[in-house]
Structures are given as C-alpha cells and as structure tokens.
Prior knowledge:
Elements: E1 4-5, E2 14-19, H1 25-37, E3 41-46, H2 48-57, H3 62-66, E4 71-73, E5 91-97, H4 99-106, H5 113-123, E6 127-132, H6 139-150, E7 154-155, H7 169-182
Helix pairs in contact: 1-7, 4-5, 4-6
Amino acid sequence: MDGAKVGGMNKVKKIIVAITGASGAIYGIRCLEALRRAEIESHAVISTSAEKTIEHETDYTVKDVKELCDVLYDVNDVGANISSGSFQVDGMIVSPCSIKTLSSIANSFNDNLISRAADVTLKERRKLVLMVRETPIHLGHLRLMEAVMEIGGIILPPIPAFYHKPVTVDEIVNHSVGKALDLFGIDAKLFERWNGLV
C-alpha cells in the first residue's frame, strides 16, 4: 500500500513530515497539528523508535498521532510514492531528527523511507529541514550537518528564543516548530514575532 489516507485530500500544499526516535517527538506532533490547522496536506512517516518515544514522552498515543496525518506511510516501504521525485511535494521536515537519521541522509544511505524521501527531496532541489535533536555535539555530528548543508539541506535544531518570555513547554515547542514551518512559507501563527525593543 502506498500510504494510508487518513484525512481530507483537497489541499494545495504538500509537506512530508518524518518523526524519528530522537527525544522531542512533540516537535513532529506539533508540526502535524499545525499543518492540519493550516489545511496543508501532510505525508507522514513515523519510525519504530519514534513510536516508543511518543508513548514515553508525550500524552499522545501512537494512534492519536497517526490520525493527525493526511497520508501515513510505513517506514520500511521504500517503494512508497514519496520515494520518487515524480511525486510532487513542497518539501520535507524531519522533526525531531536523530543523529542516526542525520547520518543516513548525509551519506545517502537510503535504508528506510525517511532517509529515501529525504534523499529524493534533496535531489529534486526541494526544501529539506532537519530539526536535529542532540546535545552536546561532537565534531562527527558537525561534519554530518555540514555535509547535509552542502547538498542543500537546512539544519534547524529546536533551540528556543526567550524574547517572548515563554512560561510553558508548549510555548517553547511552538516557537521552534513555527520557525521550521516559516522556511516553507507557512505562517502557522504558533509564536509571537519579534517587533523590536520597546
């Protein structure tokens, strides 16, 4: 099966959202929620490790998260339509992006649908945003990030800003997700924008 249709399909923009097993599953979940509110078609891949992280870190069930997707793909289905450049999408976000997935993308090691779809996104010169979730980082991690940037990817670690004085975890999550979606020209209205010092 090329992907399970979950929601409506009369949307104009299409974004691939991949959730990996890194800590911070809420970032990917919030992406899916924001895309749904903005009526943007989501094509999602959730790794097996991500399913465990979702259950451990959040109040969502895996079923809840899957229901947020317009089209959901099996992580092992490397023949899915998002594995081909002929299937048109507006870009892809990996949120959160584990170091394993970063390494796979940096080295074009298309061992599952996440890294394959990312590779296709890059070769078709579409926008790829990786919300790399690891700290501290060593030189090997930096070199992987550099390699991804050299081939056209964007590294956007979920690092919060504090000018809007966040008081909840949700506000911190929303800021990073909002910044990531901005890169696709999507104003999800998730955070207060900087208006200068007053």
